[in-house]
Specification:
Elements: H1 6-9, E1 13-17, H2 26-35, E2 42-46, E3 52-53, E4 56-57, E5 71-74, H3 81-90, E6 95-98, H4 109-119, E7 125-127, E8 133-136, E9 141-144, E10 152-159, H5 162-174, E11 179-184, H6 193-202, E12 208-213, H7 219-228, E13 233-237, H8 242-251, H9 259-269, E14 272-273, H10 277-289, E15 298-302, H11 305-317, H12 327-336, E16 347-348, H13 355-367, E17 373-379, H14 386-400, E18 410-415, H15 421-429, E19 434-435, H16 438-461
Parallel strand pairs: 1-2, 1-5, 5-6, 6-7, 10-11, 10-12, 12-13, 13-14, 15-16, 15-17, 17-18, 18-19
Antiparallel strand pairs: 3-4, 8-9, 8-11
This protein binds acetyl coenzyme *A (ACO).
The site of acetyl coenzyme *A (ACO) has 28 residues, from helix 2 and helix 5.
Length: 462
């Protein structure tokens, strides 16, 4: 079976079977999303009763369309889907998205088996059933029935849960995380996570891959795809608990399998397992915006001693090291600190730290060969200056582009209130992840370290 998904994500012609004039129907929303996409292609609505929908000529059957079709979206009730799929095969359609629910997830295994039989021994690629479709933000195509578009970026997301995939679109926008593609895979009768990982590893618009999975159909293929992937693969695997395992069976009809086995296999393949969607997003933002860490030695800079200790604990609990400062670095930092305090790691810049102390100390840490990544933290202690804290980080990120020796990740943490919010956006939009939690910061730095390790292994084996 041909694995390439280029015509799936970049079709020249799309048909919607079950297109409707009724704006409450999914087939209407799917057609409209394609129509209003910033993407050029032929569009064919299919509906036996209509002559025209949304200003487009409507065909009674797929086989009436006079041209080739690269992609068909199916939005008709489940019992009709097999016949439509037969028409797709007859018409030599390259790719199909089955939006319709009512298959194995609803206990209707026979109907799902029928679909599998229809596509067996053909080259057709099928997504679903029971899916939202996909949003291809990098090319401007919305092949889903869901309202709203993600910001264009370089994180590609795969979700076995449709609703969670949809939620991720809005969460990504809220977190200022740019998305390349977001796709629901549903019951996975054909297109599976491994096909998508294989596609995204070659996709120039994807830098980071994130997955929400409940179960995989072919464990070996899944692990091989992660192993062969040249990009970081973040995995949220649901169904850790017994009750969670039961829930996955009734959601997408998946067998969750032993959690320990999944955990070990993902790690062994070089993937990074995340606890939940928020952790996946935290880490995706770090991996998309920052260089990987070459080692696990972290420098911490703060204006509040307590936050520095919390960051130290969180880093150490996650296998990162907070090394003592070298003599050279100690002397350099000593010159910029007020007399009342001596340098340490974490470095306490003291509550009134402004732009200069933050900037100078971050630069010194980046130059230190014993430090692989830097966390810069600010507590809004009433007289602290948040704008100067973020300004210093933004300056160092700009300068890092010019200095090879500065190519180390910088993450930020803050504790404060409303006065920080605009500044948080300044950093996020510049690709500097900033988290309101020492734990989330440490977990993201760990992901940057794991990615650094993965790249080293890849280089060694090539
Ligand atoms: N060819 C083309 N069109 C046809 C055919 C056919 N053979 N037969 C019927 N149609 C038309 C219908 O006449 C109708 O058009 P109309 O409005 O002009 O009458 C249209 O296709 C749709 O058919 P309906 O019977 O009206 O079905 P409806 O739109 O109500 O539901 C749907 C279809 C959406 C596929 C539904 O069965 C379903 O599965 N819903 C759930 C979808 C879902 O949630 N998927 C998972 C998403 S991910 C998540 O979790 C959010």
């Amino acid at each position: 079976m041909g694995k390439d998904l280029t015509t799936f994500f970049k079709p020249k012609s799309i048909a919607v079977v079950g297109a409707s004039k009724d704006s409450r129907k999914i087939g209407h929303a799917a057609l409209k999303n394609i129509l209003i996409s910033d993407y050029e292609c032929e569009i064919y609505p299919i509906n036996p009763k209509e002559k025209e929908i949304l200003g487009l000529k409507c065909y009674k059957k797929l086989t009436d369309v006079p041209r080739n079709i690269d992609l068909v979206l199916i939005s008709v009730p489940a019992p009709i889907v097999p016949q439509i799929l037969i028409d797709c095969v007859k018409k030599n359609v390259k790719n199909v998205i089955i939006i319709s629910s009512g298959f194995s997830e609803a206990g209707n295994h026979e109907l799902e088996e029928e679909l599998k039989k229809i596509i067996a021994k053909t080259n057709i690629r099928v997504l679903g059933p029971n899916v939202m479709g996909y949003k291809n933000a990098s090319d401007g195509l919305d092949a889903s029935f869901v309202f709203g578009n993600p910001r264009k970026g370089n994180v590609s997301l795969i979700s076995q849960s449709g609703a969670l995939g949809i939620g991720m679109i809005y969460l990504a926008n809220n977190e200022f995380m740019g998305v390349s593609k977001i796709i629901g895979v549903g019951n996975k009768i054909d297109i599976d996570d491994d096909d998508l990982i294989d596609y995204f590893t070659k996709d120039p618009d994807t830098k980071v891959i994130g997955l929400y999975i409940e179960g995989v159909k072919d464990g070996r293929a899944f692990m091989n795809s992660i192993k062969a992937c040249h990009k970081p693969v973040l995995v949220v695997k649901a169904g850790r608990s017994l009750a969670g395992t039961r829930a996955t069976a009734s959601h997408t009809g998946s067998m969750a399998g032993s959690d320990e086995i999944y955990d070990a296999a993902i790690k062994q393949a070089g993937g990074i397992r995340c606890r939940d969607i928020v952790e996946l997003f935290d880490r995706a933002r770090a991996l998309a915006g920052q260089p990987p860490a070459q080692g696990n030695r972290i420098g911490i800079i703060t204006n509040g001693g307590g936050l520095g200790i919390l960051l130290t604990d969180a880093c150490e609990a996650n296998g990162l090291i907070i090394p003592k400062l070298s003599n050279k670095t100690y002397k350099k930092i000593d010159k910029i600190l007020p007399n009342l305090i001596k340098p340490n790691n974490p470095v306490d810049l003291v509550g009134d730290a402004g732009f200069y102390r933050y900037e100078a100390c971050t630069k010194i840490m980046l130059e230190d060969p014993n430090i692989d990544g830097v966390i810069v933290a600010s507590v809004h202690g009433g007289y602290a200056r948040p704008r100067e804290f973020t300004g210093a980080i933004l300056k160092m990120v700009r300068e890092r582009k010019l200095h090879e020796e500065h190519k180390k990740p910088i993450l930020a943490t803050w504790v404060g209130g409303k006065e920080f919010e605009d500044l948080v956006w300044d950093l996020k939009s510049a690709g500097v992840p900033i988290y309101p939690s020492s734990w989330r910061t440490a977990r993201s730095m760990l992901a940057l370290y794991l990615e650094g390790q993965r790249i080293k292994r890849e280089q060694k084996n090539s």
